[in-house]
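Listing 4. Sequential folding, example run.
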Amino acid sequence: MSYKSFWQDRLLTPLLAILKQGISPDKIALSIAFGLTLGVFPVLGSTTLLCAFAAYAFRLNQPAIQLMTFVVYPLQIILLIPFYQAGAFLFSAPMAPLTATKVMGMLNEDLWSAVKFLWNITLRAMVAWCLIGPPVILLVYHVLRPVIRRLPFRFPAAGEDEMG
């Protein structure tokens, strides 16, 4: 599978199908913003539930938000250590010498021991994400909204029912 066909099959085609469902551009932009940002939340295995909750709470498009979470999964792994470091900085805590590979290895080898070891580190990383995440959601939303509005698809008129 080529690089282009991978992105075409995994991202563009599903996203275009969502756009053709009659969802407003604002809801699409907000769904993508939440999916991208919640998708890098520094707790592995939590993003699907977080996105489902956000989609329900804000009446967002569930497929769009979950698709974005899937797309940014590698970025979640890459950003684990920076979030750990940001949390350590915020709480003036020492940073354990970790790499993403080491964290993944710990989780695969002995999940319970890894959870016990990473508990405080992860809590601090969650606080760092909570400070960074909401402004990122707003930024991505405000950047994407005008772009999506220009796409040549039929969007519901004001007051029309939306799917999502």
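-- end of first protein; second protein begins --
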Amino acid sequence: MGKPCKKCGTTNKYTDGRCKLCHRSYRMNNKERIAEYSAEYHANNKNHRACYRADNKEHIARRSAEYDAKYRKANLEKLKANNASWCKANPDRRSATESKYRAAKLQAIPSWGNTWLEKLKVAEFYLIAKTRSIVEGRLFHVDHMVPLQNDRVQGLHCSANLQILEGSENSSKSNRYWPDMP
């Protein structure tokens, strides 16, 4: 067994020499004092914490990855349910994410395509398509004017290459037609 608690004498030692009950009691009775000490400590040791993080990036990343893997394994069903409900609540954002994924596989995202403004412009197309589909009662798609996959040309996944078309028109266009086609 461990050493006895400094305050009550039980043998269930906690980190600072006190048992869990005495430790909790101390923390409850000294909240302001602990908050002041904590704020002062963090203010005085910002540089130390930053240096530790910089010196131990690999260790921190590995530990974080291990924790994430354990959490995902333990909460797989909960995470699946959360993901499904998010996808159902945000179909426009889901479509934008899937489209960006397909474009990334084709290496069709320009270097400036990951700026926050460009991401916002692209997301707006998907939101407008979803809204028009709801309002007009017809299905609208976000189309790449110059297709991402074609034997003769490859367009980019960016706001300048997007347009909103009715679903049937987009399906008939496929990847065979583009502006200024030879």
